[in-house]
């Protein structure tokens, strides 16, 4: 079944003049961008450029947000969005003293309480375990899992509700190349088969090539909002990494000249 937000050409997220202040710093500076529905948008940029802050704003957990930020047709953080948006933070949100399946059973029961939904919950948990390739570890205690396995349990929790928008903060950190490839295959399957919109952050530029569209960030600004192909062509670069460096240099030169 396709999600409602995956209509051709629709935007799942629309930001205008999005600004976020944290402490006494302006961390996001008047950003304008969109995230296409049913597509994978990569949020890339160096550590500290504001990726997590932008994601927190989109899921509605960030304070001091100004400008306009609409998510699936509602202002970010609107209560109607709670069942429609999945968010996986960098720190896995998993109970370490429970098994993988017990964690998923617990969160599934929070989402769909009641005996009447028991069989549907069991199916959802089995599907989520398969999605993240952890069926063989279903009965392992979470505290005995590796970091990569733990982050996949977190992802499975987010998949339980079949969210229309999935916001993933650096989901592939610490994973080996095979698991990284498998996770990206899963992201593509979610977009293609379920119409899920994915906003995925990474500071690994080679992951950019796997996205339909990229938001390249630096120091709280969006340097580019384009497809990987268009970005390479526009900057005459062979890789997205080179394109990023080209854009950083161009922005620096422009700044120098304006002084
Ligand atoms: N509570 C806070 N008060 C003030 N500044 C903060 C606070 N939290 C984060 N920052 C600053 O906001 C900026 C953006 O942080 P953010 O975590 O969004 O970056 P990021 O691109 O996600 O980094 P990383 O890839 O390392 O996770 C950083 O410079 C950080 O130091």
From TrEMBL:
<keyword id="KW-0067">ATP-binding</keyword>
<dbReference type="GO" id="GO:0005524">
    <property type="term" value="F:ATP binding"/>
</dbReference>
<dbReference type="InterPro" id="IPR017871">
    <property type="entry name" value="ABC_transporter-like_CS"/>
</dbReference>
<dbReference type="InterPro" id="IPR027417">
    <property type="entry name" value="P-loop_NTPase"/>
</dbReference>
<keyword id="KW-0547">Nucleotide-binding</keyword>
<feature type="domain" description="ABC transporter">
    <location>
        <begin position="13"/>
        <end position="244"/>
    </location>
</feature>
<dbReference type="GO" id="GO:0016887">
    <property type="term" value="F:ATP hydrolysis activity"/>
</dbReference>
<dbReference type="InterPro" id="IPR003439">
    <property type="entry name" value="ABC_transporter-like_ATP-bd"/>
</dbReference>
<dbReference type="InterPro" id="IPR003593">
    <property type="entry name" value="AAA+_ATPase"/>
</dbReference>
<protein>
    <submittedName>
        <fullName>ABC transporter ATP-binding protein</fullName>
    </submittedName>
</protein>
<dbReference type="Pfam" id="PF00005">
    <property type="entry name" value="ABC_tran"/>
</dbReference>
